[in-house]
Design goal:
five-stranded parallel beta sheet; seven-stranded mixed beta sheet; alpha/beta; FAD/NAD(P)-binding domain; Polyamine Oxidase, Chain A, domain 2; binds flavin-adenine dinucleotide
C-alpha cells in the first residue's frame, strides 16, 4: 500500500514521521524547501524563519517532539516584550504598571475583568456563534473594545474583524494571559525552527519514507476510492492520500465533490517583510502592535528577542494580513510592497531607510483560516467519505480556535493514527 502526503509543512511532516516505516510513504512538496509556513531563509550562514515564529509553554506536543528529536538543548524560553504604538508614541505593555500608563484606569479594570472571565470559561463551544466584538462590548464595554481590541482585531483580520467569533478570542486570551508579573516567556529554537524541520525530514527518510519536490495538480478518484495523483504532469498510483492543503485548493485538484463536508472556509493572506539592519530600532520591544495610519499591523524586532550575536546583524519583521487577492499587498510587485512598508516605517521611526542593509518579502494567500462565527461547525475530519482520502492541516480540530505549529503537528499525528487504525 502507498500513501501520498500532499504538503511538506508541519502537518504533512508530522503524519509522515508517524507513518514512515509502517507504510510506503511519499511526501510531495511544491516548494524547494520543507516547512510550509514555518520554513526559513538561508541568509549567509544562518537560518531565519520567513514568517516570525515562537512557541508557548502550552505547546506540549511540539515541545515533546523537539525532545524526541534530541533538540531540547536548542529550545530556550525568553522574554517576549510587547508594546503598542499609538498617539505617535511607543507604550510598553508587559506589566500591569505599564498597561496602566497606556490605558485609562477604568479600561484596565474592565480589561482585567474580561481576562479573568475568559480564563474561567472551559467550554468555548457556545461562543462560536457570537462575535468577539459583541462579547467584548458586553463584558467590558465599548471603550475597552475601541482602545484595546479594535486595533488588534484590525491588524489580525482587517475587514473581517467584525465576523470573528468570541470562541477565537477566548482561545487567544487564555494562551496569552499566562505572563506573570515580569511579562510573558516565549519559546524559540536557537538556530531557528529549521533544525526541527530538517531533523523531521532526515528521520522520515531514514525510516524509508520518500520526500519529493513536485506540484500535485490532481487527485484521481474512481468508484469513490483514491486511485492516484498527478505530480508535475505524471500519474503516480497510490491507495491513500493525506491532503494538508487549504480546503479550496483541495476542491480544485480533486476529481469529485467532497461528500458531506463544508469546504467553504475563508483564508487570509500575509505579506511579511524581513529587514537586515545596521542598528537597533526599538529600545526593548520585541513585538509592537500599531494603531497608526501605516500599511502594516505589527513590527517585530527579532533581535530584541534573540541576541544579535546569533546572526551578526539586526533583524526586524514588518507584517500584515490581507483578506483577498484584490489587496494591493498581493497584486503589487515586491519592490512596491517594500516601498509602501518603508514609507510607513519612516513615519514611525524617522531615518529607518538608512539603516536597511537588505530585505526579503514573503507573501502567501492561505496563511490562516478566518475564524468567523460558525467556524466550529466547518472543522474538517481526519477521515473522509472518499475511501483512502485523509485530511490534516490548519483546518483540523487541533488548530481551532487558533492555528499553530503545535496544532498542525497534532493534526498530522491524529491523521496518521486514523490511517494506522485501518491496517
Ligand atoms: C505570519 C505567520 C506567523 C506565524 N507565527 C506562528 C507562531 O509564532 N507560532 C506558531 O506556533 N505558529 C505560527 N504560525 C502558524 C504555523 O506556521 C502554521 O500553523 C503551521 O506551520 C501550518 O502547517 P501546515 O502543515 O498545516 O500548513 P502549511 O505550512 O501551509 O503546509 C502546507 C504545505 O503544502 C504545500 N502545498 C500546497 N499545495 C500543494 C500542491 N498542490 N502540491 C504540493 N504541495 C503543496 C505548501 O507549499 C505547504 O508547504 C504562523 C504562520 C504565519 C503565516
Amino acid at each position: 500500500m502507498t500513501t501520498i502526503i500532499i504538503g511538506g509543512g508541519l502537518a504533512g511532516l508530522a503524519s509522515a514521521y508517524r507513518l514512515a516505516g509502517k507504510d510506503e510513504i511519499i511526501l510531495i512538496e511544491k516548494e524547494p524547501e520543507l516547512g510550509g509556513m514555518a520554513s526559513s531563509y538561508k541568509i549567509g550562514k544562518y537560518h531565519i524563519e520567513k514568517y516570525y515564529h515562537h512557541i508557548f509553554a502550552s505547546d506540549k506536543e511540539l515541545i515533546s517532539l523537539i525532545e524526541e528529536l534530541g533538540l531540547s538543548n536548542r529550545l530556550e524560553w525568553l522574554k517576549g516584550t510587547t508594546g503598542y504604538y499609538f498617539n505617535s508614541k511607543i507604550y510598553p505593555m508587559n506589566t500591569p504598571i505599564e498597561i496602566l500608563a497606556a490605558l485609562p484606569l477604568m479600561d484596565v479594570i474592565r480589561l482585567t475583568w474580561l481576562v479573568l472571565k475568559a480564563k474561567s470559561i472551559k467550554d468555548r463551544t457556545p461562543f462560536d456563534t457570537i462575535t468577539a466584538k459583541e462579547w467584548i462590548i458586553d463584558t467590558a464595554g465599548e471603550s475597552v473594545y475601541n482602545n484595546f481590541f479594535l486595533p488588534l482585531l484590525s491588524g489580525k483580520f482587517g475587514d473581517n474583524k467584525e465576523k470573528v467569533s468570541a470562541a477565537w478570542l477566548l482561545g487567544r486570551v487564555q494562551i496569552r494571559s499566562n505572563r506573570g508579573p515580569k511579562g510573558e516567556r516565549l519559546g524559540y529554537m536557537r538556530g531557528g525552527f529549521e533544525s526541527l524541520i530538517e531533523k523531521m525530514g532526515g528521520n522520515i527518510r531514514n525510516m524509508g519514507g520518500i520526500i519529493n519536490k513536485g506540484n500535485v495538480s490532481r487527485i484521481e478518484i474512481a468508484g469513490g476510492s483514491i486511485k492516484g495523483v498527478v505530480v508535475d504532469g505524471d500519474h503516480v498510483e497510490c491507495d491513500r492520500v493525506i491532503s494538508t492543503v487549504a480546503p479550496h485548493v483541495l476542491e480544485k485538484i480533486i476529481d469529485t465533490k467532497m461528500p458531506g463536508l463544508d469546504m467553504n472556509i475563508s483564508y487570509q493572506g500575509t505579506a511579511c517583510a524581513l529587514f537586515g539592519l545596521t542598528e537597533k530600532i526599538m529600545d526593548d520591544i520585541y513585538w509592537l502592535n500599531i494603531k497608526e495610519d501605516v500599511p502594516f499591523g505589527a513590527v517585530i524586532e527579532h533581535t530584541n528577542f534573540i541576541p544579535e550575536t546569533d546572526y551578526g546583524e539586526r533583524l526586524m519583521y514588518v507584517t500584515t494580513y490581507f483578506q483577498n487577492m484584490e489587496s494591493v499587498l498581493w497584486k503589487s510587485r515586491d519592490e512596491e510592497v517594500i516601498g509602501l512598508y518603508l514609507n510607513g516605517l519612516e513615519k514611525l521611526f524617522p531615518g529607518f531607510r538608512k539603516k536597511v542593509k537588505w530585505w526579503r518579502l514573503r507573501r502567501d494567500m492561505d496563511t490562516a483560516p478566518v475564524y468567523e462565527t460558525g467556524y466550529g461547525r466547518k472543522i474538517l475530519p481526519y477521515e473522509t467519505r472518499i475511501k483512502g482520502l485523509f485530511l490534516a492541516g490548519m483546518f483540523s480540530d487541533s488548530n481551532y480556535p487558533e492555528r499553530s505549529m503545535n496544532g498542525s503537528i497534532i493534526a498530522g499525528y491524529r491523521c496518521a493514527e486514523t490511517v494506522l487504525r485501518q491496517f
